[in-house]
């Protein structure tokens, strides 16, 4: 390597080293606190452990029963093997972070990229804000990305070796991905395109022979992994593989209604997500960067209003309405690609059109199809940056264009300087993503304390500060091994109520779709929201801060505690 190359790779390696130290320290020194985990994912693991199985169980949040059970099956093992250490819930995500990055190197090697180009491409993946954010959380999407990157690698390995063993590994990986999360269907069409390309690129076997083995391999994956995970149970209980009607209409294509409306609103979503991607996520955690972006976006807002496109004004087929000026909590907690897309991916696509390549064209088509499918198959949601981890995997081969240009051509000094600045910006963006993450601040920032200086309840409820006092009072009053009946609603955090040692027994008496049930005789306490159960004069009002408005995504319920003995 020459001096320029050594400088570039040194910056990348040092950034990743600092990033890794921060990741590990945050993982093992702060509890999980993601919204979905507090209401559903981690909460249901404790319910399953409480009842001794993962059989049908209706909790307060519909995800407890309807969400595929393979993810909690992965999370529960490190939790149990560590002696109920909640920090280990994050290990599958951190492991997937490294898997995606190393597998990206493998994909580029299978595609014939040179050593420096594939090393550069895989190191850039390390620095993508959405992957970094998911690596320290307990959300599901980075795990799905790990399965997808394995599938892509196995397809390419089959193309290069023409060994059928890779087809069967591919089928099993496909089954694992589909068993993990229904959003894997977003990759069905992109993967079909790559599958068809693999049939074209492997001339050793007759096409019917390849189709037969692809079918058998995927059938095995479905039988071994998809069938037991919960889709069949959902169909039996709710007449739909995803779950009850509220789930299908809230987060799926059914919310659009007619096909004509789906085409209109889905097209709007394509434009909305395109604008979301064209942001300096990570860097915009610094107010000065966001202020400059707001000046540029003011022109876009005027264009939207002038042509009556309805990106902001139309709220049909949206979970949370689109805004050009994305709320801080959204771009801070669910960033997308940031400067990587603007400074590396877009230039790589321009180079592709000047020097087209069939294989890379297939991957570009897969990226576009995944992006479009995301827009049409579900309502717009500003939290969907995490879904685009899978989109990124399809575009990884394009990093080779930039790397080849700077490492194997003879760029001028000005070009080298701009490339150096690009790497600095991407590195700074990566460190800002984790260093200024509102849900797990490693340092005091934004007028808030570091996650390490908070007590457990404060850390668990950092995204819902209006409930912190109520949950702290609950923790002070209720013994660690008490039996507690819960009269809560779908959005209520139940995970903190299990206690630090997870010795409490929780019994939901307002299960999803079932209505309020009788309080069981074994319950010693009743924790409830006043909207579910009318409080008595003798009940203890726990102190929800109902007047708190700043930074509140969903207002808290007014919580009470009743002693039942």
Can you walk me through this structure?
The chain has helices spanning 3-29, 35-39, 41-51, 63-66, 70-81, 91-110, 115-126, 129-135, 141-161, 165-180, 188-201, 207-226, 231-238, 245-251, 259-277, 287-306, 328-333, 339-354, 358-377, 388-395, 399-408, 413-435, 456-460, 468-477, and strands at 483-487, 505-508, 525-529, 540-541, 559-563. The chain is mainly alpha-helical and 565 residues long. Strands 2-1-3-5-4 form a 5-stranded mixed sheet, with no helix packed on it. The longest helix is centred in the first third of the chain and has 27 residues, at 3-29.
SSE blueprint:
Layout: H1 3-29, H2 35-39, H3 41-51, H4 63-66, H5 70-81, H6 91-110, H7 115-126, H8 129-135, H9 141-161, H10 165-180, H11 188-201, H12 207-226, H13 231-238, H14 245-251, H15 259-277, H16 287-306, H17 328-333, H18 339-354, H19 358-377, H20 388-395, H21 399-408, H22 413-435, H23 456-460, H24 468-477, E1 483-487, E2 505-508, E3 525-529, E4 540-541, E5 559-563
Helix pairs in contact: 1-7, 1-22, 3-5, 6-7, 6-8, 6-9, 7-21, 9-10, 9-11, 9-20, 10-12, 11-19, 15-19, 18-21, 18-22, 19-20
Tell me briefly what this model is.
By secondary structure, this protein is mostly helical. It has helices spanning 3-29, 35-39, 41-51, 63-66, 70-81, 91-110, 115-126, 129-135, 141-161, 165-180, 188-201, 207-226, 231-238, 245-251, 259-277, 287-306, 328-333, 339-354, 358-377, 388-395, 399-408, 413-435, 456-460, 468-477, and strands at residues 483-487, 505-508, 525-529, 540-541, 559-563.
């Amino acid at each position: 390597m020459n001096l320029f190359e050594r400088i570039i790779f040194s910056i990348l390696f040092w950034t990743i080293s600092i990033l890794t130290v921060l990741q590990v320290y945050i993982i093992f020194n702060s509890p999980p606190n993601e919204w979905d985990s507090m209401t559903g994912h981690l909460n249901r693991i404790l319910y399953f452990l409480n009842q001794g199985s993962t059989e049908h169980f209706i909790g307060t949040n519909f995800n407890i029963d309807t969400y595929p059970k393979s993810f909690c099956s992965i999370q529960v093992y490190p939790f149990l093997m560590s002696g109920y250490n909640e920090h280990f819930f994050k290990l599958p995500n951190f492991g997937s972070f490294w898997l995606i990055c190393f597998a990206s190197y493998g994909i580029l090697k299978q595609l014939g990229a040179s050593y420096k180009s594939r090393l550069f491409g895989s190191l850039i993946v390390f620095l993508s804000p959405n992957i970094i954010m998911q690596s320290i959380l307990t959300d599901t999407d980075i795990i799905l990305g790990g399965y997808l990157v394995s599938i892509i690698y196995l397809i390419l390995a089959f193309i290069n070796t023409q060994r059928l063993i890779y087809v069967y590994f591919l089928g099993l990986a496909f089954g694992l991905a589909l068993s993990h999360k229904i959003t894997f269907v977003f990759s069905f069409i992109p993967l079909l395109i790559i599958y068809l390309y693999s049939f074209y690129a492997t001339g050793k076997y007759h096409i019917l022979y390849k189709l037969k083995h692809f079918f058998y391999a995927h059938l095995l994956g479905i039988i071994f992994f998809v069938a037991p995970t919960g889709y069949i149970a959902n169909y039996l209980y709710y007449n739909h593989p995803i779950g009850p009607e509220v789930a299908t209409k809230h987060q799926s294509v059914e919310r659009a209604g007619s096909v004509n409306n789906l085409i209109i609103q889905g097209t709007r979503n394509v434009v909305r997500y395109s604008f979301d991607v064209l942001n300096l996520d990570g860097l915009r955690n610094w107010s000065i960067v966001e202020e400059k972006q707001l000046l540029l976006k003011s022109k876009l807002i005027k264009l939207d209003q002038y042509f009556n496109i309805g990106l902001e004004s139309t709220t049909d087929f949206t979970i949370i309405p689109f805004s050009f000026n994305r709320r801080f909590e959204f771009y801070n907690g669910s960033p997308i690609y940031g400067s990587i897309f603007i400074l590396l991916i877009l230039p790589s696509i321009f180079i592709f059109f000047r020097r087209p390549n069939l294989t890379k064209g297939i991957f570009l088509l897969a990226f576009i199809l995944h992006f479009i499918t995301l827009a049409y198959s579900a309502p717009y949601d500003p939290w969907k940056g995490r879904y685009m981890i899978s989109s990124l995997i399809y575009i990884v081969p394009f990093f080779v264009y930039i790397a080849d240009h700077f490492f194997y051509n003879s760029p001028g000094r000005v070009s080298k300087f701009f490339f150096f600045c690009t790497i600095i910006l991407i590195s700074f963006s990566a460190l800002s993503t984790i260093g200024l993450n509102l849900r797990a601040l490693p340092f005091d920032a934004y007028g808030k304390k570091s996650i390490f200086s908070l007590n457990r309840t404060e850390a668990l409820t950092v995204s819902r500060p209006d409930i912190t006092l109520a949950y702290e009072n609950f923790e002070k009053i209720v013994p660690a091994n008490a039996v507690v009946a819960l009269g809560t609603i779908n959005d209520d955090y139940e995970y903190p109520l299990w206690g630090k040692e997870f010795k409490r027994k929780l019994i939901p008496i307002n299960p999803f779709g079932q209505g309020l049930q009788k309080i069981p005789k074994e319950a010693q306490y009743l924790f409830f929201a006043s909207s579910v159960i009318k409080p008595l004069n003798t009940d203890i009002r726990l102190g929800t801060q109902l007047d708190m408005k700043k930074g509140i995504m969903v207002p808290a319920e007014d919580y009470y505690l009743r002693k039942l003995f």
